[in-house]
Write a structure and sequence with these properties.
The protein is an alpha+beta fold and 182 residues long. It is 37% helix and 27% strand. The radius of gyration is 19 Å and the shape is elongated.
């Protein structure tokens, strides 16, 4: 049951889930739980599919273009799992970059974000990784990334604060050189 595409060992995940079911005092042979280990293993393979993918590979397909003004793609939805609790966090990413002779199709930016989000993540790291991938992949004059997300670890446990949104940003290249504060 190892996913060849992702390298994720689904059988091992399923075995671990069976152990969790037993550890919480449930009967893993009960009809409602019988297929749960397999379902969770398949879900994890999907949710962590970005672990073995390079976001720069999707940014490699671009176009020569002499556009020298900012290109902005906003409200890009993403879904991820925080590495501290393996609970979801989700929101929107906003990306702006100033091309330096090369642009990329907007779907490629969204795909790069999806690849990076489909790993055990922290929002701060995700924001920086998106900015770095775009800088490496497109080599623009500069890039700015803002991510807004709600974290289930904040709403379903701990402080239980539904509606709280975390905002992170990362700036690179010309955006930083132009005096944007660190």
């Amino acid at each position: 049951m190892r996913s060849i595409v992702t390298g994720i060992d689904q059988e091992r995940i399923a075995a671990a889930v069976r152990e969790i079911i037993t550890a919480i005092g449930e009967d893993g042979s009960r009809e409602g739980l019988l297929e749960t280990p397999r379902r969770i293993a398949e879900m994890y393979a999907e949710l962590f599919s970005g672990t073995y993918q390079d976001p720069r590979s999707v940014l490699a397909t671009g176009f020569a273009e002499d556009h020298k003004e900012m290109v902005i793609l906003k409200n890009i939805p993403f879904y991820s799992l925080c590495e501290h609790h393996f609970l979801p966090f989700h929101g929107q990413a906003h990306v702006g970059y100033v091309p330096e002779g090369r642009i990329v199709g907007v779907s490629k930016i969204a795909r790069a974000i999806d690849i990076l989000a489909r790993r055990p993540q922290m929002q701060e790291r995700l924001t920086s990784q998106v900015a770095d991938a775009i800088m490496d992949g497109l080599q623009p004059d500069g890039v700015a990334v803002v991510i807004e997300a709600a974290h289930q670890c904040m709403t379903t446990r701990g402080p239980q604060t539904p509606g709280a949104v975390m905002v992170t940003s990362a700036i690179r290249g010309g955006f930083r050189r132009r005096g944007v504060p660190r």
